[in-house]
TrEMBL record:
InterPro entries linked to this entry: cNMP-bd_dom, cNMP-bd_dom_sf, RmlC-like_jellyroll
Name of this chain's protein: Cyclic nucleotide-binding domain-containing protein
Position of the signal peptide: none
Domain of life according to the entry: Bacteria
TM region positions: none
Length: 160
């Protein structure tokens, strides 16, 4: 029963932006693994080589750094419909410089990056999905950079 519910959650997220049909989803779902992460559980840790994309289908999580003094710094929050991964790990096989952690109970649908790329090579909707994910990431980074460079500390806090 949970598997059916998880598939429905993933389907509702994926079809928000693109018209995936049942056959496209069914052929892809066999490559996804559903994972439940308890609050405070790590999805991955700093120095892990991350090879999967973890689509967040339920819950809230965050990315954070820990400096040399052991202090945590928020990188970003992730909510339902977002995803956890380390682009440097996926593309360059570099260790992740940050942690990804569940803040509430989270359910993720993970797929290997290689498998996701394979889907995007053979299916237009999956290609569009991957492109849209990267576009949203680029826009988020652009806005964050502008905020860091142009806004005061108080303005950045109020936007957070």
């Amino acid at each position: 029963m949970e598997e059916v519910k998880n598939r429905q959650l993933l389907q509702s997220i994926l079809t928000t932006f693109l018209p995936f049909d049942e056959q496209e989803l069914d052929s892809a779902f066999k490559h996804f693994k559903f994972n439940e992460h308890a609050s405070k559980a790590h999805i991955f840790r700093c120095q892990d080589i991350v090879s999967e994309v973890y689509f967040l289908i339920f819950g809230v999580g965050w990315y954070y750094y820990i400096d040399a003094q052991g202090e945590e710094f928020n990188k970003s929050l992730v909510k339902q419909g977002g995803a956890f991964t380390s682009i440097g790990s996926l593309i360059e096989r570099q260790p992740s410089p940050f942690y990804a952690q569940a803040l509430t109970t989270c359910i993720t649908a993970s797929i290997s990056y290689e498998r996701l790329l394979g889907l995007s090579r053979t299916n237009l909707n999956w290609r569009e999905h991957v492109r849209k994910v990267y576009e949203r990431l680029a826009l988020k980074k652009e806005k964050r950079e502008a905020g860091l460079l142009l806004l005061s500390g108080q303005q950045r806090y109020q936007q957070f």
